[in-house]
Amino acid sequence: MNAMFLSRMSRSVGYRFYSNSFACFNTTPAVDKMYDILQEYRAKNYSRELSSRFVKELLKHTDENKDGNMEYSEFKQFLDNIGVGDQMNKEEIDDVLKYVGGEDALDGQISIANMQKVLIDDLKARKK
User: Fold this and answer.
1) Per-residue pLDDT tens for 13-47?
2) In this protein, which residues make up the domain named EF-hand (predicted)?
3) Distance between CA atoms of 88 and 79, rounded to whole angstroms?
């Protein structure tokens, strides 16, 4: 399978792919809402930046306690910092954290490095 086919498939049936492999994932309305918010913010503020640069710039100041993880409060602050904190409620944020962090999100925090990878990969896939 080529990358273009996998990219189209990822948008239409919910598959995320990494390099030469792909894995099934389930999006939720909250995850789709977050991506819409990020795309709109990027169009207004980072229109000339690559997806990867955009995500890195957004996330570099979110780790307030410098432990390499993002907790609910840090994610909420991240949304507030970009002016959209009122657009997602607690349940939606929890859904996003579970989507990005998987099993790791069960303890209330996710790896910022993992969040960066997932956001970059998914933004690129949704763009095509």
Assistant:
1) 444 443 333 444 457 888 889 888 988 998 999 88
2) 50-85
3) 8
Q: How many CB atoms lie within 10 A of CB 113?
A: 11
Residue 74 has which token pair? 């840090």
Nearest-CA neighbor of 71 among 38, 119, 115?
115
DSSP 98-123: HHHHGGGGGGTEEEHHHHHHHHHHHH
Torsion region of 83: left, alpha or beta (phi above 0 gives left; psi -120 to 50 gives alpha): left
- Measured CA to CA, the distance from residue 69 to residue 85 in angstroms comes to 19
pTM of the entire predicted model: 0.69
Q: What percent of the chain has pLDDT over 70?
A: 74
Rounded to whole angstroms, the Cα distance separating 26 from 50 reads 25
DSSP annotation of 5 reads H
d(CA 39, CA 68): 25
